[in-house]
Amino acid sequence: MTREEKAIVIDNIAAQLNEYPHFYVTDIEALNAEQTAALRRKCFENDIKLVVVKNTLLGKALEKVDKADADLLKVLEGPTSVMFANTGKAPAVLIKEFRKKCDKPVLKAANVEGCLYVGDDQLEALCNIKSREELIGDIVALLQSPAKNVISALRANAGEKIAGLVKTLEERNN
After folding, report:
1. How far is CA 102 from CA 30, 34, 73, 79, in A?
2. Phi/psi class of residue 25: alpha, beta or left (left: φ > 0; alpha: ψ in -120 to 50)?
3. What is the residue range of 99's domain?
4. Three-class SS of residue 75?
5. Among 7, 28, 103, 125, fewest CB within 10 Å belongs to which?
6. In the chain, how many domains are there?
7. Residues 69 and 145 in one domain
8. CA distance 107 to 25
9. pLDDT per position in the chain (174 positions), as tens?
10. What strands, in cross-sheet order, belong to the sheet with 106-112?
11. Whole-model pTM?
């Protein structure tokens, strides 16, 4: 591979690192052709882009986009593939599901929601991460809950409760 070809590959990887907010560095070595095709199909169905890369080129692309953490660069040994995703936990869920059939892919590292997760033991934590939208939904639901309780309490036997409230307020004013 010439320098120009390497520069093009580095630019392409760097563009994908900028395009996708989350990426997982994995090892899919020892998967046979059928398993690899099944993994690629699952990735496509879940809107995850799977790319096999050379470690040195990935390292240079990470440096180019200022995502080259020392811990991340340490895992760039042996066969490496990168899963790019718009949803933070989607690749983790896919990996966990795919492992029910075989022992690969192995998670080397992941950059999700601006945090770096290193090691295959982080897979369960990544599966449980909530996206920004899910967290906002939870907060809205929590904020709406007290108001819903008050409204439902007022609606149940509304006449009696409202009359009681009015009577209590009148007594306080007097």
Report:
1. 10, 12, 27, 17
2. beta
3. 3-129
4. coil
5. 103
6. 2
7. no
8. 6
9. 788 888 999 899 999 988 998 999 999 888 888 988 999 999 999 999 999 999 899 989 988 888 877 888 888 888 889 999 988 888 999 999 988 888 888 999 998 888 888 888 888 888 888 777 777 887 887 777 776 666 666 666 655 666 676 777 777 776
10. 48-53, 80-85, 22-27, 106-112, 115-118
11. 0.74
Clarify whether residues 108 and 158 are in a common domain: no
Total Cβ atoms within 10 A of residue 105: 25
Tokens of 108: 């080397």
Residues 126 and 92 sit within 8 Å (Cβ to Cβ): yes
The SS3 assignment for 165 reads helix
Q: Output the domain CATH number for residue 109.
A: 3.30.70.1730
